Backbone:
């Protein structure tokens, strides 16, 4: 039998110390010299199959423990160092593997510390939401990444930017695109800035949605995108050129603290401006009211996607010409929140969006279907919710990409103005939801995933409730 050589010095040393043996004592048990064992522990000699078998027979050691290359621990450490706060601290995987090999206990301690940090951050967020719901603004804020600062700034304010809306309506009137908005935008980019727009195949631009080449004055858009998203990328580039002054003025009012946050916010305002170009405010509001906010009919009327039309509905907040005050949340199939927005800000304190009962989580099992619910929160507030999965970029065979879904909602007194309100009017199947498990005090909830932070656990050996987390 061919002899397989394994260098596992750190693991042999860990086993020896765990048994409380000196090098001399272990070497005697294995029938080798202490100096040879010393060389093994320093990875200067291999641990042969014969020695593995002897370790197993003499010291009753699980061979898997010796042959494990630290992959499990290294994988968990890799997850820690992908956190945005630690990204870039370790240049490659080899250092993580070295830590897992050389200091596994220190690695486990780091993982426990990181999990405790995440748990405390989640609790702090929950308590901040609870204080905000009761009218108390926390005076101490944790360290925020630039993207978190931007999201918070946009979620708490109305999703309406008047300067951009006015500029977009004036631009649309002057452009007069007729039935070919994409063609008109391409012609404007070419005539005003010398920019030529091209759609590139996946192999030429595998990792980008769009790219503007300043040297050749060409805008490249990926063929992965749907025709609707390609038009939005084009409209976004035009908006960033045509509405530079208006976007800068709205950006200044956000009062962000860093250049990186401003760069991220400028991108978000550019996308907002693109929607304003694709669906000019006055025309879109008029159509929305006539069609009773039917998103599918609106997307057909303006030749946009479901997501684009739904997002536009959250921005109908012009003084004296406002629509139903919708809010929107987008999540992926793992439950990660991608974005939130609302005509009056996102109602985090009342609606939350973290309840598993919400139909947005069911849309992934029913792709393309519009799911409508009447949702009642613990405080008695009732919302209308409209949820649907989104298609996203085109994936190739074998590619696993993130799919997302959106929920569009409004307080129930606005439901009668919509076609969706008719579907749940007087419905007996009201969904009893909550803002999030940690903030919800509904008793006996079969969907509960965590106990509420506002109540002590009610553990009773004699009585077990329906929920996995009973509380007093």
Residues:
């Amino acid at each position: 039998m061919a002899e397989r050589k394994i260098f596992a010095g750190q693991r042999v040393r860990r086993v020896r110390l765990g048994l409380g043996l000196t090098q001399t004592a272990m070497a005697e048990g294995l029938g080798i010299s202490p100096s040879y064992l010393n060389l093994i522990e320093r990875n200067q000699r291999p641990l042969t199959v014969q020695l593995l078998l002897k370790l197993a027979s003499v010291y009753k050691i699980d061979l898997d423990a010796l042959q494990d290359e630290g992959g499990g621990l290294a994988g968990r450490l890799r997850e820690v160092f992908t956190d945005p706060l630690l990204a870039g601290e370790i240049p490659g995987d080899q250092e993580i593997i070295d830590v897992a090999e050389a200091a596994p206990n220190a690695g486990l301690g780091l993982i426990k510390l990181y999990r405790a940090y995440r748990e405390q951050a989640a609790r702090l967020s929950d308590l901040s939401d609870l204080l905000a719901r009761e009218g108390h603004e926390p005076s101490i804020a944790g360290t925020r990444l630039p993207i978190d600062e931007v999201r918070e700034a946009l979620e708490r304010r109305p999703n309406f930017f008047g300067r951009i809306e006015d500029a977009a309506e004036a631009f649309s009137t002057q452009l007069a695109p007729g039935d070919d908005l994409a063609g008109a935008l391409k012609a404007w980019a070419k005539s005003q800035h010398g920019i030529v727009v091209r759609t590139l195949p996946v192999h030429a631009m595998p990792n980008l949605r769009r790219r503007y080449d300043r040297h050749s004055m060409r805008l490249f858009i990926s063929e992965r995108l749907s025709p609707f998203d390609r038009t939005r990328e084009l409209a976004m580039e035009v908006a960033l050129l045509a509405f530079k002054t208006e976007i800068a003025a709205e950006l200044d009012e956000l009062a962000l603290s860093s250049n990186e946050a401003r760069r991220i916010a400028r991108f978000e305002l550019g996308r907002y401006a693109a929607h304003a170009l694709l669906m000019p405010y006055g025309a879109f509001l008029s159509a929305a009211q006539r069609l009773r906010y039917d998103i599918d009919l609106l997307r057909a009327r303006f030749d946009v996607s479901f997501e684009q039309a739904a997002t536009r509905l959250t921005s109908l907040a012009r003084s004296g010409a406002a629509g139903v005050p919708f809010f929107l949340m987008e999540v992926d199939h793992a439950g990660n929140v991608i974005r939130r927005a609302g005509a009056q800000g996102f109602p985090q304190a009342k609606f939350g969006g973290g309840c598993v009962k919400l139909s947005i989580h069911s849309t992934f099992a029913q792709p393309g279907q519009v799911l409508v619910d009447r949702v009642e929160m613990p405080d008695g507030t009732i919302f209308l919710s409209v949820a649907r999965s989104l298609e996203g970029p085109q994936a190739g065979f074998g590619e696993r990409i993130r799919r997302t879904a959106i929920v569009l909602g409004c307080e129930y007194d606005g439901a009668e103005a919509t076609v969706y309100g008719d579907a749940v009017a007087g419905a007996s199947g009201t969904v009893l939801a909550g803002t999030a498990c940690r903030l919800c005090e509904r008793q006996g909830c079969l969907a509960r995933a965590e106990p509420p932070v506002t109540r002590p656990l009610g553990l009773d050996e004699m009585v077990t409730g329906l929920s996995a987390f009973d509380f007093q």
The mean pLDDT is 85.
